[in-house]
Structures are given as C-alpha cells and as structure tokens.
Amino acid sequence: MIKGFREFILRGNVIDLAVAVVIGAAFTTIVNTLVASFINPLIGLFFAADSLNEALAVPVPTLGGGTVTFAFGAIIGAVINFLAVAVVVYFVFVMPMNRLKERAAAREQLPPEPEPMPSEAEILIQIRDLLQKQNDTAPPKP
C-alpha cells in the first residue's frame, strides 16, 4: 500500500501538478493586480461598475414575510470582471508567448512533417494499376 502511494507521488505527474498550482496562484496575483490597477479604472471611465451590485438588485418577498434580494448586477459585474481577466491573460501573456514559440520554431528550422501514409485502399489501387500495366506491356504467351 505504501509502495503504491510512493510510486504515485514520484511518478512526476503529481509533482508537475503541484508546481502548476503554485505557479497558478502566483500568476493569479499578477492578473488580479493588472485587472484591479488598470482594467477596472479603464471600465470606470465609461460607467460606474461598483454601482452594479446595488443598481440591479431585485428584492422579492419570501413566504415567511421577509425579503430576499437577487443581485443581478453582481452577476453582470462578475461577468465583466471575468472578461477583463480573460482579455488581460490573452493579450499580455498568451499571445506574446505564442509569438515567442513561433519565432523559436522558425529559428530551429524544424524539418517539414513527413507526408501522411497512404490509406490501405490507395495502396491496393496502386498495386492494381502496376499489375495491369505489367500485363499490358508483357509479351503474349506462346
């Protein structure tokens, strides 16, 4: 039992996953800072995003006589925040990294990928055509 657990831990996937979680947490801090410091003020230039929480709140009476509030504005604000984070991640991190990878691959001048193998049907057709050509050019039997 312990041996199986040790093999699982040392397999490499778990360690890679742990590193990814730690890097992801650090990366989250960077993205959240970019959004809070740059994107949210940019959105604030056009409309007050902080007021969405209260602006689109709908109070609904409950069966017990109280009220519950559906905060649709908070949902819209979360969607805007998500889209802002996605835009920052794509344009600041993903797109530049993809360009760097393309440049590195171009510098390495990787050999072109080999042509795909013909299918079984294509090979059989080629064999049939070759046999037919041989029979057509062969001298007649006496």
Write the layout of secondary structure elements.
Elements: H1 2-10, H2 13-46, H3 52-55, E1 57-61, E2 67-71, H4 72-108, H5 120-137
The CATH topology, please?
Answer: Non-ribosomal Peptide Synthetase Peptidyl Carrier Protein, Chain A
Radius of gyration computed on alpha carbons: 32 Å
The SSE string, one letter per element, is HHHEEHH
Overall structural domain count: 1
How would you name the CATH homologous superfamily?
Large-conductance mechanosensitive channel, MscL, domain 1
Arithmetic mean pLDDT = 79
> Based on helices, strands and strand pairing, what is the structural class?
mainly alpha
3D shape: elongated
Count the helices. How many? 5
Second CATH tier, the architecture:
Orthogonal Bundle
Helix content: over 70%
Key structural traits:
single chain; 142 residues; mainly alpha; Non-ribosomal Peptide Synthetase Peptidyl Carrier Protein, Chain A; two-stranded antiparallel sheet; elongated
